[in-house]
Amino acid sequence: xxxxxxxxxxxxxxxxxxxxEFYAIHEKCSPxxxxxxxxxxxxxxxxxxxxQVSVASAAAIWExxxxxxxxxxxxxxxxxxxxxxxxxxxxxxxxxxxALALSGLDFEGLAALPDAEVVARLTAITxxxxxxxxxxxxxxxxRADVFPHGDLxxxxxxxQVFHLPKRPSEEEMCALAENWAPFRAVAARLLWAYYRDYxxxxxxx
Length: 205
What we know:
By secondary structure, the chain is mostly helical. It is 61% helix and 0% strand.
């Protein structure tokens, strides 16, 4: 099973992808962030918190969760809904966090499963959709060929990088990403890096 664990892994994958647009991003935006996180409850909880909120909001809520010591299953199960709401979690996110904490998910066993089975196991838990499952597989498990097709930043970056007439839908993004196997997770990192660079320049001039 191929994993992405270092900048060297990214460099090799870019060479094997052999796509001029990705070479250009790699040259302009290096070092490309690894976006790796330790596997386990905390990283998956953080991915849930990041769903459908801005990066800044997600970071602020996650910091409060950490300060409150709620990064393990036991603490999350015992936390009251009122306490979690004060930390910034919406009612659905509270339900999702509780469901994850009570799921009994075997994180060590998860690491040994194929990509599709990882996504299937995770999406069986209330509140975890394909985006969250794919982001966890990419970041926490380091899977090399996982791509979060529903990610709006990736879709918008692909539109610009490949001069598409409009932002691709999730289905169109899935079809486009097929061309980047078996290093779709590296393609995602490159497109995220491009999007971050683009956003940083957006207000200039």
